[in-house]
Specification:
Layout: H1 2-8, E1 23-27, E2 32-35, H2 36-52, E3 69-71, E4 76-78, H3 80-84, E5 92-94, H4 95-245, H5 252-261, H6 266-269, H7 277-287, E6 289-291, E7 301-303, E8 308-316, E9 325-329, E10 334-338, E11 345-349, E12 355-359, E13 367-372, E14 377-382, E15 387-392, E16 397-403, E17 413-416, E18 422-425, E19 432-436, E20 441-446, E21 454-460, E22 464-469, E23 473-478, E24 484-489, E25 495-501, E26 507-512, E27 519-525, E28 532-540, E29 550-555, E30 558-563, E31 566-573
Antiparallel strand pairs: 1-2, 3-4, 3-5, 6-7, 8-31, 9-10, 10-11, 11-12, 13-14, 14-15, 15-16, 17-18, 18-19, 19-20, 21-22, 22-23, 23-24, 25-26, 26-27, 27-28, 29-30, 30-31
């Protein structure tokens, strides 16, 4: 063996021994050729150092390994094992170099902070000096102002005394005249107020009497119903006793004899109660309402079937507005009309009678119907182009536009529901579009309503629309479901030319009787369809205009009717309901 190692030239790299048996070959411990003695000694030394050594910063995940790296992504320290497992492909840095760089950055920040601190201290000193200068300046101004004001006050006091003496002398001469005039004015005021009080008391007494009369009638109907019901109960109790006697224990022969003696029709003759009567009486009572004449402060009247209208004035439409058509209400004192071709749109002030253009006449435009979206915007149906346009009164231009998908909508009627949405009705196919006025987009289509020709329609407060279909029929349709709730035939009123939901939520119908072709009438229907009042207004019309009159109520108590080129303004007069 020694010859073999000698031939190879191997010796212990630690002690240089090459005797037989001394060379153990390549040792992994030190990556060198060591003899047995040196290898054992070095191995014991390494193991001793490993067991006696202490880890300065243990890894959070591997407590027997020391932190040597820092993950920039996770911002945590780690050992090499974590680097190749949990934080593989992360951006890593040597822990010592990382913290050295951080320390250097912090030192730079401290320098900047020190500079900023010095600047702020210097600034505070400047502010203190500035405050002191301002205080001194204003103290000096205040002293000067006080001296000036004191002098002026003395002058003003002297002047006041002088003028007061002069005024007293003049006032003494005027007081006698004023007192005399005052007494006269107070007398007139007292007389006027007494007249007003007298009128108010008369109105109060009249309305109170009407209310008491209606209340007595309702209570009388309730008492009659109560008496009838009590009588029915007595009859029912008697029949109940007879019926129970039949159920006593007895044989079939006795039961047959008792049954023959019983008047079988007695129960059938017992009057039954009208279950709908309480609801009907409550409904009648609630129809009695208080309506102001003009505004909230004026004393009004009770609204009901005794109401009537008197013509207050007429407004002539200028000749340049050819074949005018009344389209809708704008606000409490203004209505809108258009010319027959729909080229221009105009507003009419019902109070003053003035007529001003909303849209100047344009032959390229075809306005059919209009609905106002507040005071600054309105929508109109352009029948020439098949579009619904939304016009801004502030900018005097069309801001939004919606193409109509159905040709029937070219002559669509428009209204605004209680939620502020625009509703368009196809007059041919009975289809409705619900349109968002902020974007002019169609948000819903209602096409399951029974097909009918729609000649006009408007919305009322309880999410319903009122449709005039045909010439003598009005329908109530629920806008949310699209279902017809009720239909009222007005054949007894004859041919209807227009219906309008007024500001008082009543439905005003313009119609004429074929027996009186030269007279047009206006009747009213309650919003629930239960109350009908014909012939509230009658006015003469020519054969040329008898199918054209339309009406609009800009505010409660005022009704405007277009008759040819004349606007008739009617005022409602007091009247309480008849029960």
């Amino acid at each position: 063996m020694a010859d073999l190692f000698d031939n190879l030239g191997l010796k212990c790299e630690e002690c240089g021994d090459s005797e037989e048996g001394a060379i153990q070959g390549y040792k992994v411990v030190e990556q060198r050729h060591l003899c047995k003695t040196c290898a054992e000694r070095i191995a014991h030394a390494i193991l001793g150092e490993a067991s006696a050594g202490k880890i300065k910063w243990p890894c959070p995940e591997h407590d027997k390994k020391e932190v040597e790296l820092y993950c920039r992504e996770c911002q945590v320290p780690m050992c090499h094992t974590c680097a190749v497992t949990t934080h593989v492909r992360h951006e890593l840095a040597d822990i010592l170099k990382f913290f050295a760089q951080k320390k250097k950055t912090i030192e730079q920040d401290l320098t900047k902070i020190s500079d900023l601190k010095s600047e702020n201290l210097c600034f505070l000193e400047m502010l203190t000096k500035c405050s002191k200068d301002i205080d001194e300046h204003f103290d000096a101004l205040e002293s000067k102002l006080l001296a000036t004001i004191t002098a002026e006050l003395m002058d003003a006091e002297d002047k006041r005394k002088s003028e007061i003496e002069t005024t007293h002398a003049r006032a003494k001469e005027e007081i006698d005249k004023v007192i005399e005039k005052r007494d006269s004015l107070i007398t007139d005021i007292n007389e006027n107020v007494n007249d007003v009080k007298s009128d108010l008391m008369k109105k109060n007494n009249a309305m109170s009497a009407e209310l008491q009369d209606m209340k007595c009638r309702l209570q009388l109907k309730i008492a009659q119903a109560r008496d009838t019901t009590n009588l029915s109960l007595k009859t029912i109790d008697a029949e109940e006793s007879v019926a129970k006697s039949l159920l006593d224990d007895c044989d079939c022969k006795v039961f047959h004899e008792r049954l023959q003696n019983l008047d079988k029709s007695t129960v059938a003759k017992t009057p039954s109660t009208d279950k709908d009567l309480p609801a009907l009486l409550t409904s009648i009572a609630k129809k009695v309402s208080y309506k102001t004449e003009d505004g909230e402060r004026n004393v009004g009247f009770l609204a009901g079937t005794k109401q009537s209208f008197e013509m207050e004035k007429t407004i002539k439409v200028p000749a340049e507005i050819k074949d005018p058509v009344l389209v809708c209400r704008v606000n409490r004192r203004t209505i809108a009309i258009r010319d027959g071709a729909g080229h221009g749109l105009y507003k009419v002030d019902v109070e003053s009678g003035t007529i001003d253009p909303l849209m100047a006449a344009d032959k390229n435009r075809g306005i059919f119907d209009v609905a106002f979206l507040g005071n600054d915007r309105f929508a109109y149906n352009d029948c020439k182009h098949g579009k619904i346009r939304i016009f801004s009164l502030d900018n005097k231009k069309v801001e939004l536009c919606q193409d109509l998908l159905n040709d029937g909508f070219r002559f669509a009627y428009l209204t605004v529901d209680s939620r502020g949405l625009l509703v368009a009705a196809d007059s041919v196919h009975g289809v409705f579009y619900v349109i968002d006025p902020t974007t002019a987009t169609i948000c819903r289509t209602i096409n399951d309503i029974e097909s009918r020709t729609i000649l006009s329609f408007e919305s009322i407060e309880n999410e319903e629309i009122v449709i005039k279909s045909g010439h003598a029929e009005i329908s109530w349709v629920c806008l949310l479901s699209g279902k017809i709730k009720r239909i009222i035939s007005l054949e007894d009123w004859c041919r209807i030319s227009n219906c309008h939901v007024g500001a008082d939520n009543m439905i005003y119908v313009v119609y004429h009787d074929e027996k009186e072709p030269k007279v047009t009438k206006v009747g009213v229907i309650s919003s629930d369809g239960t109350t009908r009042k014909p012939n509230l207004i009658e006015f003469p019309t020519s054969l040329l205009y008898r199918n054209l009159p339309r009406c609009v109520m800009p505010k409660p108590g005022t009704l405007v009717i277009l008759n040819g080129n004349i606007l008739l303004v009617y005022k409602e007069t007091p009247g309480a309901s008849e029960l």
